[in-house]
Specification:
The protein has 225 residues and is of the alpha/beta class. The chain contains seven helices and six strands, in the order βααβααβββαβαα. The longest helix is centred in the last third of the chain and has 20 residues.
């Protein structure tokens, strides 16, 4: 498999986004990792089984893997956080796989340790990948951050120690393991990202009513003329 940019020790892959298998058709060793019929979860279980201790992976998953409420979803997320080292999550916009699929996806970055090691998880809210997010996927200006976040993703990933001071309102930030565990191992970025809403000033009600009366009078004059 290709290497994750910046390190030859990383492998990456994307699983089937949706699917289901009968238990009878599923390898029993995988079912021992997580008992589920969902192919996207079985794929993650397969990665964990195939990786050697110390092996690292970047796996593209549908967003449902990050917040699904089934026992299998929660068990697999807990396993990544508690039994191995979950390094980071890159949330991607919903158009990156168009025209083939419009589902929202994310990249899970993790290391198999069999002994834990997660102390915090790095989140990045990727909003552009250098191409339009419609079915045409036309190339955009790769040198502008607003149309291509990928260079920034890589730069911040390689300098994660400097991310500790970033606020939750920024495009990337760190979340401590204890907070993730307290949220039932929910790994969706929206659970932790803080959105700053711009203050909107409205006219006083008296002025709004006066404006409406003036507008009504103007309409009446127009009818009579």
């Amino acid at each position: 498999m290709p290497a994750w940019p910046g390190s030859s020790a990383w492998s990456w892959a994307n699983p089937p986004f949706a699917g289901s298998l009968d238990y009878e058709s599923t390898d029993k060793d995988l079912l021992q990792v997580v008992k589920t019929k969902k192919t996207e979860l079985l794929f993650l279980a397969l990665f964990l089984r195939l990786l050697k201790p110390g092996g690292r992976a970047a796996v593209i998953v549908p967003d449902g893997v990050l917040f699904g409420s089934s026992k299998a979803h929660k068990a697999l997320r807990r396993m990544l956080v508690e039994d191995h080292k979950l390094d980071g999550i890159v949330s991607m916009p919903s158009g990156v796989f168009r025209p083939y699929a419009g589902v929202s996806t994310a990249i899970l970055l993790f290391t198999r340790t069999d002994s834990g090691g997660t102390d915090h998880v790095w989140f990045y809210d990727m909003q552009a990948d250098g191409y339009s997010l419609d079915d045409k996927r036309n190339p955009l200006d790769a040198g502008k951050h607003e149309s291509n976040n990928l260079p920034d993703v890589l730069a911040r990933w390689q300098s994660r120690d400097a991310e500790a001071g970033r606020a939750r309102t920024e495009q990337s930030f760190l979340v401590p393991k204890a907070e993730i565990a307290g949220n039932d191992y929910d790994l969706s970025i929206n659970r932790y990202k803080q959105v700053v809403h711009a203050a909107v000033e409205y006219d006083p009600p008296q002025k709004i009513l006066a404006d409406l009366k003036a507008l009504e009078a103007e309409i009446v004059r127009g009818w009579r003329s």
